[in-house]
Amino acid sequence: MSRTFLKMNGLGNDFVVIETASQPFEPTPEAIRAIAKRGDGGIGCDQVIAIDPPRSAGASAYVRFWNADGEVAGACGNGTRCVAWLLMQPAGKDSVAFDTVAGRLSGQMAGDKRVTVDMGRPGLDWTQIPLSEEMNTERVELQVGPIDAPLVHTPVCVSMGNPHVVFFVDAPVTDAFATGTGSLVEHHPLFPQGVNVGFAHVQSRDHIRLKVWERGAGLTLACGTGACAAQVAAVRRGLTDRTATVEFESGSLVIEWREADGHVIMTGPITLEYTGKLPEKVVA
Ligand SMILES: N[C@@H](CCC[C@H](N)C(=O)O)C(=O)O
């Protein structure tokens, strides 16, 4: 049976979104890789997202995320905004709640194709990232490059339902630098589940420039949970105020780490690109 998908993106971080109410979706890692492949019969995306029927009261859906490499991801910020919009817009609602493996998330319309999502509280303990050994996650003993002249060092680690390491850099990094360094750090033994690697340049107390090498997807145009993690990391280090604009080359997100309840609130755009049918050979 052919299966419909929606192609969406948040700041160019792109997704194949599949609604599963009428047809279950239990893909193998190979099927995810075939969908995510750019060219050669694939649709091409950074993540695949399934919107399942709700499993608990008060939720409109249960949402699952996979990286392009076929592995499950616990969270996806840009995808969360896209899903929230899809669950609100056709129903004419302006707020929604749904569940993921990392917990309950909620969204609100914030303008035309603009959505605010509550990403919950960040995990700050080393066991929550997780790290393979006990460490202060505000100043992690990790450096890349020569011992006496490291390229990047002493990052902050944050879980947004998925693992992030954030290096503060003196100037925005190039794609080549993020790729070379990020791919090394992603698989460092300190991160038993791998890690998303952010390079954050703090321009002012309310403005961060960011590039993220994503676990399981590589260098993406933007990473929503990466933006949340960078802002949480910057507040922990005393570098930014509670609300900051996090700028990628493809556009910006506004991230607040709310003082009142410790939740991270993200606002940004969504784009619905097109609707299509999955090729028979990758239908799972
Ligand atoms: N693009 C995402 C993050 C997707 C998951 C990540 N690569 C992981 O493995 O944790 C976002 O917008 O947050």
TrEMBL record:
The lineage of its organism: Bacteria, Pseudomonadati, Pseudomonadota, Alphaproteobacteria, Caulobacterales. Its main location: cytoplasm. This is Diaminopimelate epimerase. The active site is at C76, C223. Pfam families: DAP_epimerase. It comes from the Bacteria. The record marks H164, E214 as: Could be important to modulate the pK values of the two catalytic cysteine residues. It comes from Caulobacter henricii. The keyword Amino-acid biosynthesis applies. GO terms for biological process: lysine biosynthetic process via diaminopimelate. It catalyses: (2S,6S)-2,6-diaminopimelate = meso-2,6-diaminopimelate.
